[in-house]
Give the backbone structure.
Amino acid sequence: MKKVLIINTKLNKGGAARVAHDIFENLNSDFDIFFAYGRGSKNNNSKTFYFGYKIEMFIHIFLVRFLGLEGLGSYFSTRKLIKFIRDEKFDLVNLHNLHGYYLNFFTLLDFLKESKIPIIYSLHDEWPITWLPAHSLGCTHCKTGKGKCTNTYQYPKNYLPIFQRYMLKRKELMFSGSLEMSIVCPSVWLKKNIENSFLSKFKINVIFNSIDTEIFKPAVNKEELRVKHNIALNKKIILFSASNLNDKSKGVDYIIKTAELLEDKDYIFIGLGAGKIRLSKNVKTLGYIYDKLKLAEIYKLSDIFCFASAAETFLLSAAEALSCGIPVVGFDITVVRELVVNDVGILTKNTSLSLAESIDELCNDSNIKLEMGRAGRKLIEDNYSKSIFYKKYLNTYNDFINKFNGL
């Protein structure tokens, strides 16, 4: 059985972690598969490997925040990971998020290149082709160092962007030479962006992120779920979520303003995710929910899923809502158009007023809301099921290993 290592910032928190962990859990009968991560809590699973050092993470954060030097910290953490890879002798490494203040990715990529270990690089944002931001928001400067920066996306955060061109050159050099690598993108939009970059020399496939349609499915009895979770029966529930609700790029401030505009009507806005936000009589939060069954129940008892992101690569939470038969309403950003087609939700102008008007319009037309819910469920079943996702990753792993071994 071939031996595969998945590497990501965290084991099970955040969109990228959930995708990576799903692969880890569901391809373990086909491969001897391990999961290495550098942040979060240690796990007792013998197939997981935690290699982070917290003191290095804080040093790494300083380098990024004040100098923009991502990937040049975490020396000892990275050496620990490299020793693990060398000792275990993996046939394939599946990289996911390399950013996140936990890894010296220059050192890691040099090691993998020298060791001739084939790599599947699963992208979750534009970070590999920018000097630092996870999303460029169409800013040419972030990808080339030329012209004026117009990007408002602030992760990873930086105060002194003095090493922009240096980091772009280092990244381009990092992916040069005899690197055996294939790239997987979760959207056509991201694939097109990667094809227009220095990563275009690699094979680039699209594998849509998947949804467990057996867990995330329409409710049999919404009222029963609302009673179980102590949610008002006589209110329309508008759900929103983010791994970190304080992340400005997720647009939670817009959603809070939307809630204010609908304050005199029978709506309750419920937020899922870590962090504290300004609450009011019609805004509450339930924290970060790790348990998928509980998470699915919160989706199911809702009327609409709402988002106001500045940038996304797939928007997993919206797909989970659609799988539960819940229509979505949110800002009209490029990549979301691949998922939120006309008959499953509404994409609006990027204002709180537009969100409020669309939510109110949809909630007051029960027939259209029901039709959108059914269409959303069918869309996910036909295009984003776990079986399709795992089969494509299984074939991608096998094809690349066989190609590397000349089979």
